[in-house]
Every structure is written in C-alpha cells, then in structure tokens.
Design goal:
Elements: H1 18-48, H2 55-79, H3 88-98, H4 111-129, H5 138-173
C-alpha cells in the first residue's frame, strides 16, 4: 500500500542477481552453521556433566538452539527470510514446507513419538526459568541429541543443494 501512495520515498524492489543471491545464502548458511556447531558442542559438554546441578536443563536448551538454528538456516538459504521466532514447532512447519525431507527427523505418528519434540520445545522457556519443573534424563538428552544431529544432517543436505543450485545460476549469469 505504501508503494501505491503518490510521492512515496521507497525505491521499487528489484530481484537479487544470481551473484547477490549466492553471496547472501552463503552468509546465512555460515552464520547458522556456526550457531548449530556451538550449540551442539555445548549440549554435548552439558550432557557429559550428568544430572548434577542444572546441566540437564542447559543441555536441553542448547539442543533447542541447534534445532532453531537449523530450521532458520533452511528458511534463510532457500527463501532469504526467516520469521523472528523461537518457537521450533512454528519454525519446523515453515522449514518443512520448503524442504519436506526434514519431516522424517521428528516422527509424529503417536503421542509417544511426539513427546521428545514437545519436551525440546518446552526447553526454551522451562529449562531456563522453571528449572525445578523441567526434568529430563541423561538418556532422554542423548536420544534427543542423536535426533537433532540427524535433523542437522538433513538441514545440511538441503542447504548444500540450494547453495549448489545458486552457484550454478551465478556461473550462468557471468
């Protein structure tokens, strides 16, 4: 609507060149890959600390952060946009719509299969602010970490495929 007003101060939008798209996607990919790597390392260290103090909650939070960054990577690399949200259920739906290969990472057929994802979703708030009510075992954390790593492998495949496509388009443009 603002663009339709007479005398507006906005320049008309123009599409990215293939070179610009590739550079932007690479920057997004690098940023989110770094975040994922850091979160997985921290989660592994926290899991190794066992059930003492609040290490399990820290591990769950870091696993949540890795999943969040993974979904954001897919959205940014494939569509150059990710909504500002920490809700991994919402981000999952958005990312899976763009990359259906991600769906298999989190089975949903039964309530028992949905439970680990829901527990991970709760980690963003409860593991930090309601520590006494957020309990998670080392075995649950190890299972979640394995699932998160599987998801990240799928994220990596989606992002790599998109970057390769953008690189081909950039090469054709020159």
């Amino acid at each position: 609507v603002l663009y339709e007003l007479p005398g507006h101060a906005f320049h008309p939008l123009k599409p990215l060149t293939a070179q610009e798209a590739l550079a932007l996607a690479k920057a997004y990919d690098q940023e989110q890959s770094s975040s994922i790597k850091t979160s997985l390392i921290r989660a592994g260290q926290a899991i190794a600390m066992g059930q003492q103090d609040d290490w399990p909650q820290k591990a769950a939070f870091d696993l949540h952060q890795a999943v969040e960054a993974g979904y954001i990577a897919v959205l940014q690399v494939t569509g150059f946009y990710a909504p500002r949200s920490h809700n991994i259920k919402f981000l999952r739906a958005q990312a899976e719509a763009k990359a259906p290969a991600l769906v298999a990472a989190w089975p949903r057929e039964t309530r028992a299969l949905r439970k680990p994802f829901e527990k991970l979703k709760r980690a963003y708030v409860d593991a930090r602010y309601n520590k006494s009510s957020y309990e998670i075992s080392t075995a649950e954390l190890e299972d979640l970490k394995a699932t998160v790593e599987t998801l990240i492998e799928r994220v990596r495949a989606v992002c790599d495929a998109r970057l390769a496509q953008l690189a081909r388009e950039a090469a054709e443009e020159t």
